[in-house]
Write a structure and sequence with these properties.
Largest sheet: 4 strands, antiparallel
Helix content: 55-70%
Strand content: 15-25%
Structural class: alpha+beta
Number of helices: 8
Oligomer: single chain
Strand order of the largest sheet: 1-2-3-4
Length: 223
């Protein structure tokens, strides 16, 4: 179970970090900033439909999953040296590539459920839903100990990139990944509104977040 939680928790944290942006007071609706503000409002209201209107959760999940697991497979030997206590990294590239390919569809479905449980708070029924709810609840614990602020938005044509500074509180959870910079890519839609479609700096986030998750296992006494 531990190995499964590492990557799904990483992705859940990354996805929710995209969404937990500071609210904006822009009157112009057809701007990236307005979309980010609506996402923040949807998060606060636990309004899954509203968040989905301004964030393509499926696209974000798929892109983040594929990019992060590609790094995992490529750097598996490096990760094993960095974290010798973690048996999950004690494999070679061929094994990890097949492992990820075999579970990709199920993992992506579970990530979507994680986001729904986080945004709706619904009660799980099946074992699969219970697992998703557990990760959603853990994600909520993390996010109580982090602040996210949009520090810059650069727009070019029908695309934009929002730079989001994430800072942890001076608490055990907050210091697991005390300082991160996340870049969220947005695209203008046909109706003029903007939508977050992917995380554009997964490579930069990968090692700081993995290190934080490894420390998380230690904090929980799971080593």
């Amino acid at each position: 179970m531990r190995s499964r939680k590492v990557w799904l928790l990483f992705l859940a944290l990354t996805l929710v970090a995209v969404l937990c942006t500071a609210a904006f007071a822009y009157s112009r609706e057809r701007t990236p900033e307005y979309a980010l503000g609506e996402i923040a409002a949807g998060i606060g209201a636990r309004d899954y439909e509203k968040v989905s209107r301004y964030a393509d959760l499926q696209s974000i999940a798929m892109g983040s999953y594929d990019e992060s697991t590609a790094i995992l497979c490529r750097d598996i030997e490096k990760l094993s040296r960095m974290y010798p206590q973690d048996w999950f990294f004690r494999h070679d590239m061929a094994f990890m590539t097949k492992y990820i390919a075999d579970r990709r569809e199920d993992d992506l479905a579970l990530i979507q459920d994680i986001m729904k449980f986080y945004l709706t708070g619904n009660t799980p029924i099946t074992r699969h839903e219970g697992e998703a709810r557990w990760i959603a609840d853990e994600t909520a614990k993390f996010l109580q100990e982090y602040d996210a602020e949009v520090v810059n938005v650069e727009e070019e044509g029908g695309s934009a990139v929002a730079v989001i500074a994430i800072k942890g509180h001076d608490t055990p959870y907050g210091q697991l990944a005390p300082k991160l910079t996340l870049k969220a890519a947005l695209e203008e839609q046909q109706d003029g509104r903007w939508k977050v479609v992917r995380v554009s700096n997964v490579k930069e986030l990968f090692y700081p977040v993995v290190d934080g998750i490894e420390n998380y296992w230690t904090l929980q006494g799971w080593q």
